[in-house]
Amino acid sequence: MFACGVGLFLHSSQVSAAEKTYTIGTDVTYAPFEYQAEDGKSYVGIDMDIMRAVAKEEGFKVDIKALGFNAAVQALEANQIDGVMAGMTVSPERQVKFDFSESYYDAGVAMAVGTNSTIKSLDDLKGKKVAIKVGTSSAEFVNSIKKQYNITTTTFDDSSNMYDDVMTGNSVAAFDDKPVLAYGIKNGIKMKIVGETYEKGEYGFAVKKGTNKELLTKFNSGLKKLKANGEYKKIVDKYTGTNAKSANSNSKSSRTILGLLKTNSGTLFDGFKQTMLLTIVAIVFATVLGIILGMMGVAPNKWLNGLSSTLIYIFRGLPLIVLAFFIYIGIPNLTGTKIPAFVAGIITLTLNEGAYTAAFVKGGIKAVDNGQMEAARSLGLPYGKAMMKVIMPQGIKIMIPSFINQFIITLKDTSILSVIGILELTQTGKIIIARNLEGFKMWLIIAVIYLVIITLLTWLSNLVERKIK
């Protein structure tokens, strides 16, 4: 029996090791290295194909998380993910915090301007504004020459918005890795590459310093095999060769608003479902928290009053984006415990929206005439029963419109959670735009979706308000 037990244990350990899954963070707005496939169901590109091919060679699985570059790097620092594969240039600054694989691609920073621009070199940028992408080697390069050329910068989270800033004339140039700019121009952005290639560098797969050496060794081993058997060259040629694969359909009908809506309806619906799920779950927890804090705020106890006021002050005072990053990245950094992005989003919305809910719960209760409580107590009702039977029924009538308005606010606030990689409606829009580069049309579609939902909720609010009067 002991021998059988040991054998089963060893067998299960071997199976577990063979099927080990690593969570890999990436930025799927960075074609041709990583972007969403046109079917909206998978992520493709040079990085994604290399990572999957390496995993197949080395016998492990990968769970790709679309976080955005900046969020992916921070998530890796906080041990929320196992590695980052996102066109990440190896630099001395990054090597302080991360261990890198062998180089899998040679790249360099390039400058792109509008098709009718007369700018040809860095000297022509003196006194002008340029667009950069946060956390990238191209941004580091521009920041290093800002004083020399008297450049003003505008920073964006993704490449598509950065390109739009140049095409609309807000900035005179954008800096990005040359393959990415070339791919965008090939797929429709009205820009041209000028000048030389700056800050040549190498892309590497990154893990946190001193951790996941096993994964890094597997990646290097798999990459070596891919280069030896010719698979690596096939992957790169697939996206950058003469017959390179396009990130999106080039037919005019598919690039109209109706065409985009039809092509991306499944992806948009998934984002919509995630937005509604976040909103509904968060508003339930926020309502419970808000009622508890609100009741504490009107209780005949100074300590409870003070605690309520303090918590409301803190969570109303913190910007939602700061709170989201603190919960998703800060707490895991301190505790070493992973928090899933969805859970972090729910906690963020619960604390923020719960504080606002508590404020109007306190207001609704205090709006009930003091004589009501005095009359109830004079009839012999204890404080708790007087509150539940007399005060709360009157206060709820005052609060209901505010509850529905808070639901609307929570719905809109879910868009901020895109910064931690939750694939709600706004993040879904960013990913689609990175593929088709139709920023104006896609944001118009998403804006209309939000407006329709909010209009329906506003009608509901007005109906309820009329019913309770």
TrEMBL record:
Membrane-related topology note: Multi-pass membrane protein
Protein localization: Cell membrane
UniProt keyword list: Cell membrane, Membrane, Transmembrane, Transmembrane helix, Transport
Signal peptide feature range: none
SUPFAM superfamilies: MetI-like, Periplasmic binding protein-like II
A single GO molecular function term of this UniProt record: ligand-gated monoatomic ion channel activity
Domain of life: Bacteria
GO biological process: amino acid transport
Domain ABC transmembrane type-1: residue ranges: 272-461
Gene3D superfamilies in the record: MetI-like, Periplasmic binding protein-like II
Entry's transmembrane regions: 276-299, 311-331, 442-464
Pfam families, alphabetized: BPD_transp_1, SBP_bac_3
This protein's GO CC annotations: ATP-binding cassette (ABC) transporter complex
Family: Belongs to the binding-protein-dependent transport system permease family.
Name this polypeptide is given: ABC-type amino acid transport system, permease and periplasmic component
Organism from which the protein derives: Dellaglioa algida DSM 15638
